[in-house]
Every structure is written in C-alpha cells, then in structure tokens.
Amino acid sequence: MSSERSSATLHLARVGGRARVHPWIYRGEIAGFEGAPEPGGLVAVADGAGAFVGHGFYNPRTSLACRILSRRDEPIDAAWFAGRIGEAVAYRRSRGLAGEAHRLVWSEGDGLPGLVIDRYGDDVVVVQCLTLGMSGALPWIAAGIRATLGDLAIYVSDDPAAARIEGFEPRRAWLDRAGPDAVTVGEGSARFVVRFGLGHKSGFYLDQAENRLRVARWAAGRSVLDAFSYTGAFAVHALAAGAERAVCVESSPEALAGAAANLELNGLGGRAELREANAFDELRRLERARARFGLVILDPPPFTRRKAAVDAAARGYKEINLRAMRLLEVGGMLATFSCSHHVSAALFAEVCRAAAEDAGVTLRTLEALTQSRDHPVLLTVPETRYLKGLLLERL
Ligand code: SAH
User: Fold this and answer.
1) For the CA of 301, the nearest atom of ligand 1
2) Please, is 51 exposed, middle or buried when counting C-beta atoms within 10 Å of its C-beta (0-12, 13-18, 19+)?
C-alpha cells in the first residue's frame, strides 16, 4: 500500500470552477506535477494559483486521472476511511435506509469515489473497488469497515471492466476469512437468498429495492412478465402483492436457479414460470404468439459503458421497449429501466416515446423512477445518478 501522505502535487491549469465541487480531474485539466506521482498513490491537488484543493488518488493510465477524496489537508488512512464510512452509516440510519440489505457506500455519492460497499445482514459486507487507488487502499478500507461496523466477513467483488481500464487485478474472494456461502435477507415483506463467491452472478441488485416495492403496488390480479429477471426479485414482490402469475426471462442459468430458490422461499413457486432465454428473442416470440400481460418489467444490464456506443444502446432500448409495449393489454403497466451511465433520463424518455410511436400505443407516465435512496445523488456530481426508469400505463 502506498503512503497515507501525498507523494506529489498535481497542479490544475485553472482556478475555481468545477474542481471546487466535483471530485474528478481529467488529464487535460492538469498543468503539471511537483514531485513524481505514484500510480494509484495519493497526490495533493493545487489550483492554477497554487491554492490547496484536496488530496486524491492518481492514475497515469486513465483520462480521468485523479479523484479527490478529501478537501482538507489530512492523512488518508484507515482512520480516515472509518470516518467517511461512519458518515455513510449515519446518513442511512437517520433516513431509515439501513434495511437488512442495503448499499452502505455509494462511491462519489458518499465522498468515497471509486468505492462501493453493500451490507448483507449482520455478518457480511461486499466491497467493490473501481479505481487503482481504492484497490491499493483495501487494507485501510477493511480496517475502516471493521472499526465502524464490527468484525464482519468482507467479500471483495471488483468490477472486471473497471479493473481493466484502471490497470489492476480484479478480486473475487473473501478478504481474509471466509464468510457464509449465502445469507437470507428481507426486503419489504419478501425474503431473498443472496449468494457470494459464485463467479459473476452473485449478490443482489440493491439499487432497485424501492422500485420493486413501488411496482408491486400495481401487480394485484395482473399477469406479469419480468424480463432480465436475475434472481426474480421483481416477480417475487409482484406475486406476493397478488399478481396472478409471473414469467421470468433471464439468460443466466445460475440467476434462474436463484429465482427458483427465491420463489420457493416465499411460497410462490406455483404461480411462476422461469424461462432461460435471450430476452430480445423471447420478447419477439411472445409478440408473434400474441401474448398479453398486465405488467411488464424491463430491467436490462447496461447496454453501453462507453459514450461512443450510446446510439447502439439507444437502438437496443428502443427495440425491447417497442416489443414490451405491444405485449401490454389495455390498462397494462410497463416498468422500464436503463442503468447505462451515458444514457440520460431525457434520452431514455425520448427512446421510449419513439418506441411507443412505432408500436402505435398511447402511454401515460405515472412515475419517473430512479435508484434507491441508499445510492445518494449529489447535485454537483450528476454522474452519481445512473438508474433511470419510467412507470407507464397503456391507455
Ligand atoms: N431485475 C433484476 C436485476 C436485473 S440485472 C433484479 O431486480 O434483481 C440484468 C439481468 O439481465 C442479469 O441477470 C443478466 O444476466 C440478464 N441478461 C443480460 N442480457 C440478457 C439477455 N440478452 N436476455 C436475458 N437476460 C439477460
């Protein structure tokens, strides 16, 4: 691990502006360095007039070269991480957001750019490092977590795509001692099995927790299509709220096995059907078969991680939304989502509008949806909001 003191000073070209309220510094904004910055190490940041801006982790490989951690001149160490994690815990406790499973640290949204921590019950946290600096700081992070929350088991589940860009080896393993293979957590009145360490398909989509409960309010008496279902969490809530039946469509057999387990756990297996399929193909097939649903959920994975591929992503969103709209009975509801960072809420709404036009379907917007409140959004860091959704009703 690098030192808790900055090894060099990064000089910004300009004074004032975004750097005062946003933690990201791009390579093009850097005028030069004093000293030799270490890859993944701490640098002090100074503005164009030489005034101290903060301390941040530096990466020479990426165009997003530095993310500011603190705007005070202080050491960044285990005690510092414990302090920030403690603030994240306090926010969630005071707003009633500390459910059995919740996101405990949301990167920039909690003043910890590049770090995500999810809590699963009393015994487990899952840590995700998104930057080289955070990856190197794992011992401080672990000490900070345990100083704040007690001696939990820590599963490290780095994002391989981020690791490749940042230049570190992604970890997928228990940190220093093994925790349980799985835990059971409550969300609303339902219970879910969350597995760890089963390769890529592990964990739980906490960002949709509030939307699952919101969408379920409309489910009674309806037949439900849960497309891109993962472990069936939308379907479980819809059935528990009185939906007649649910069809889950998912391409991963491991995820579908999790869906089967969750449906059984909640006594709902009899009213659900699990289909291992490519949702694009299955939506097309259902359309040909003239199937109709009273509630369709579309919660696909990100269709792009790059700005350059936004057009292709928009075509993908248009296609699945168009088909889903054609499957709606009159009075039917569509809950449709995009978690692509580079697809804005305005673009997503426009894509859905264009899909409705092509489908010849009139839809009323009942609600605009976003990520659960345990993924806080900073006004000055718009990138902290990534999940966009619309709840639509077919007229
Ligand atoms: N709604 C879920 C989360 C969905 S995540 C929940 O609330 O828990 C997106 C899911 O889509 C992942 O499980 C992924 O395996 C699946 N997926 C990705 N591409 C797919 C495709 N083409 N067809 C079907 N499922 C797909």
Assistant:
1) 9
2) exposed
